[in-house]
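Researcher: Final request for today, and then I'll write up notes for the group meeting. The sequence and the SMILES for zinc ion follow.
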Amino acid sequence: MNRLVRAAVLAGLGLPALAPSCGPERARPNVLVITIDTLRADHLGCYGYPRPTSPSIDAFARGAVLFENASSASSWTLPSLTSLWTSLWCRTHGCTDVEKRLDPSFESWAETLRDAGWDTALVGGHLFLEPGYGLTQGFTHVDAEIVQTDSTISSQEVTDRGLEFLGHKAAARDGTPWLLWLHYFDPHDAYLAHEGISEAFGTERKIDLYDGEIAYTDRHVGLLLDGLERLGLARDTVVVLTADHGEEFGEHGNHGHGYTLYQEVVRVPLLVRAPGLAPRRVDELVRSVDVLPTVLALAGVEPRRAIEGSSLLPLVAGGGPDDRAAVSEVSWHATQDMRALQLGGFKYVDHRLGGGTLDLLFDLARDPYEVCNDAAQDPLLVQALRGELDARLRAAELRAGEYGTSRSSATSPEEQERLKGLGYVGDDR
Ligand SMILES: [Zn+2]
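Model: Predicted protein-zinc ion complex:
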């Protein structure tokens, strides 16, 4: 199959068009978005991980559509979440370093839903979700009181505040739909131990502590989803669960995130549960920029600005072959400028670091862990994929011209300290 797709890529042929949108009919559902920072897809049971890190998410997955191959637009929080909420590539929205603020001319789907009558709320356990960064655009209620540092544990608080909002909504029963975004942070480093949970995974190695952090977060996501059920809201609510990026544990010589675009940092979980959507697993490549059009389609609301993703509902309905290509970029360290394209089962990375450039080519179906760089063996495919990537980035730059520029804004000394504590400044790689 891959050989055929490769031939199509080289010949510049398009794959069959998407089927028309065919989502279930449901008037104005509520929308609950759960993002979990630094959560690799392959460390969840529902994605095949053998350790019991995620019993709650696995139970949720059994009633949801699970996307096996979801790719994030970047490998760190700010650009990746901005792409999720605007359905635009990083090159288009321009929030590519810690001081960049999304220009108000961009539209997040919180704004789209708010203006269509949804009550919108955000509980953000992350510095980038505080007012001023742009990700709060469109949220009528912003709870940014959970101040995140490298040594705080916040999942319980995120769940408690989320349940408080849901409790108000359940009591009101006024027919107003709502959008609630909860961002969990605990799997992010520093990896902390949780009594009664971490012991089962080990507390010596970082990757064991990381698994304990996932299990701790999973418990609180479970309590949230139980609350949604208990309050009688689950039946009328679209629930999206995803992550901003994953984490590296030395697979390619790095630790953390934001340094490379390997699968361990760009392959994220993506689960969608919606009224009328039958649970299933979808193998095709999908992108974080596809979440916005999918949710809006489920809500019956049209995007008001041009977007770069497209609804996943045709795929979910088994709409045949799909020609999505996933772009990922990371360029926030001084000498780093990396961009990647996934298409037709292949992944090409233009890996520029420290003045050097390196072409990486992986056949992900054969080599999902990106062990063998095939670039030297297949220069024609490298050339074709690089051309495709460059064309998409040029198109993104053109689209960026339709918006104001996301500007740099000086961070306060206090913000600098917190960014440093979270690993976002002080490393010039
Ligand atoms: Zn993050």
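Model: Residues 326-421 form a domain with the Arylsulfatase, C-terminal domain fold (CATH 3.30.1120.10). The CA atoms of residues 106 and 153 lie 32 Å apart.
Researcher: Thanks, that's everything.
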